[in-house]
Amino acid sequence: MTKLRWGILGCAKIAMRACIPGIAQSETGVVTAIASRDLQKSQEAAASLNIPKAYGSYEELLADPDIDAVYIPLPNHLHKPWTIRAAQAGKHVLCEKPAALTAAETEEMVSACEENGVLFAEAFMYRHHPRYARVQEIIASGEIGDIRGIHGTFTFSNPDDHANVRYKREWGGGSLYDVGCYPISAARLLLGREPEAVTTHAFFSPEHDNVDMMMSGLVEFSGNVALTFDCGMWAAFRNRLEILGSKGRIVLPSAFVTPTQETTDFQVIVGADERTESVTLLNQYALQADDLAYAAWGRKSLRFAPQDAIANMKVLDACLKSAEERARIVLSH
């Protein structure tokens, strides 16, 4: 089968440890080239991951006619310019989350891709795993009743790494962008609609360029349903989602990262009955790459339209504004 040929813009850890190995395990993709502003760095990355080509600039990679699609794991403030340049070079784009710094930037990126006839996808890898389709099936079946609320958490602790790009405010640092975007996107996915308002509270750390090191929030949806979430980069590790229904609940102990079979499984609890839903351990990054490839070849539509990225960024915009202004922010879609 023909392979979709990928180029990687940058040697970020998420690319090296997850996305590149995922593409290598996919049915459809092959990583053809990797670029860094430091040629030695890209050459070392290429050698370690068996990538044929290494470039000393992103421009060189985009000029390579043997590249069909690019993955952009660069710091958040670079997502917009390099997505637009990739689109202008005729490459499909898989952009690491969050798509950009604002919804307005994301709209520009999506428009550039549409104008140049290429695809744009935001890299929320967890949504491509079949367990989320299974969760949706259980909700639709009525087994847990009407959804009364969703609670999501994603926290980790890394406060001593002061040089980390997550701790640079102008670069789009902060826990909301890095991990809070996951439970927000999950609630939108499972409820199938956009929120009406948000209220958040954040710990902006002077030691870390005043980025939000912790945020807690309430995201209001129609139908008297809300997401409560917290996210953080200076807190014990958690990675969990609970969907609460009028009759029962669904608990995903490891909602967004699934390194083992045990963390892929989830629980359905109705009254005194509890069962474990066992889902095959699959590489989420490989599935994400396959979904884009099949869309690029016209075999399927994109699993998630580019407008989904714009909608998610609108919620993130509102969450940051709410935390900064200490106010409830009403959304318009």
Automatic annotation (TrEMBL):
<dbReference type="InterPro" id="IPR000683">
    <property type="entry name" value="Gfo/Idh/MocA-like_OxRdtase_N"/>
</dbReference>
<dbReference type="InterPro" id="IPR055170">
    <property type="entry name" value="GFO_IDH_MocA-like_dom"/>
</dbReference>
<dbReference type="GO" id="GO:0000166">
    <property type="term" value="F:nucleotide binding"/>
</dbReference>
<dbReference type="Pfam" id="PF22725">
    <property type="entry name" value="GFO_IDH_MocA_C3"/>
</dbReference>
<protein>
    <submittedName>
        <fullName>Gfo/Idh/MocA family oxidoreductase</fullName>
    </submittedName>
</protein>
<comment type="similarity">
    <text>Belongs to the Gfo/Idh/MocA family.</text>
</comment>
<dbReference type="InterPro" id="IPR036291">
    <property type="entry name" value="NAD(P)-bd_dom_sf"/>
</dbReference>
<dbReference type="InterPro" id="IPR050984">
    <property type="entry name" value="Gfo/Idh/MocA_domain"/>
</dbReference>
<keyword id="KW-0560">Oxidoreductase</keyword>
<dbReference type="GO" id="GO:0016491">
    <property type="term" value="F:oxidoreductase activity"/>
</dbReference>
<feature type="domain" description="Gfo/Idh/MocA-like oxidoreductase N-terminal">
    <location>
        <begin position="4"/>
        <end position="122"/>
    </location>
</feature>
<feature type="domain" description="GFO/IDH/MocA-like oxidoreductase">
    <location>
        <begin position="132"/>
        <end position="251"/>
    </location>
</feature>
<dbReference type="Pfam" id="PF01408">
    <property type="entry name" value="GFO_IDH_MocA"/>
</dbReference>
